[in-house]
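User: Here's a structure from my thesis project, written as structure tokens. My advisor, Dr. K., wants to see whether a designed sequence matches the one we expressed. Can you design one independently, without my sequence as a hint?
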């Protein structure tokens, strides 16, 4: 069995930062905790609020919204950083089970949906009109046979792409949107905390991008005047960017 102590530490730090991030808009939000497991050498971690409790958000003191945030993480064979396999930011009304909006990420989606997508739970006649016909151009059966479905199409059936695996919106982006566009109550330093956490996330993503595209990174550094050579003085084969650059 491998040593996953580095990944476990990162995961608990990630859970603690998620708690701190959500508490910028909900000071009494529950703790986010990491549950780690290893099965047949595969390491997994689930990060969610204790007992799956939502954070309750207020607008002008009125508790109007609920927020659920969760992540599933695993390891990489190429580096020691944890990988996010799935994430979900779900905004719900104070009462009722249907979300208002969901921002979800699936590292390995099972169908032709964007790996990172936004689903808006709303209703508008123009969308229903456009979606009430067989979408024969789609490989998804649920879309290609939509006209014969037993329920009316909904806007939440549409998965709006939002940046792909590396450049997707962060939890900090989602919360700052709630502050600016809905006026959600927040701590005095919320914007500064969210900016700081967002900066850390983007630095980590930059490291991941650079690690996956070493040839391009080397070219950029050379053009900036740095001296860069392949490891051990040997030519290094080009990295196939298809693993994530072209992903939907």
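Assistant: Designed independently from the structure alone:
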């Amino acid at each position: 069995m491998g040593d996953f102590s580095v990944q476990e530490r990162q995961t608990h730090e990630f859970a603690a930062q998620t708690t701190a991030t959500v508490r910028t808009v909900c000071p009494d939000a529950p703790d986010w905790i990491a549950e780690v497991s290893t099965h047949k050498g595969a390491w997994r971690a689930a990060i969610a609020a204790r007992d799956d409790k939502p954070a309750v958000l207020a607008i002008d003191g009125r508790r109007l919204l609920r927020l659920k945030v969760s992540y599933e993480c695993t390891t990489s064979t190429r580096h020691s950083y944890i990988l996010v396999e799935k994430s979900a930011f779900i905004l719900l009304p104070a009462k009722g089970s249907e979300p208002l909006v969901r921002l979800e990420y699936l590292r390995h989606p099972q169908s032709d949906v964007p790996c990172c997508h936004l689903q808006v739970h709303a209703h508008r006649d123009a969308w229903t009109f456009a979606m009430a016909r067989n979408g024969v151009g789609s490989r998804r059966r649920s879309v290609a046979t939509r006209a014969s479905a037993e329920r009316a199409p909904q806007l939440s059936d549409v998965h709006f792409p939002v940046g792909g695996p590396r450049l997707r919106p962060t939890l900090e982006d989602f919360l700052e949107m709630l502050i600016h566009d809905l006026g959600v109550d927040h701590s005095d330093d919320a914007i500064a905390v969210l900016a700081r956490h967002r900066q850390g996330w983007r630095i980590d993503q930059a490291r991941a991008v650079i690690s996956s595209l070493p040839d391009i990174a080397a070219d950029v550094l050379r053009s900036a005047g740095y001296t860069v050579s392949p490891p051990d003085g040997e030519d290094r084969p080009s990295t196939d960017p298809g693993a994530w650059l072209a992903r939907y």
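When you compare it with your expressed construct, this may help: The radius of gyration is 21 Å.
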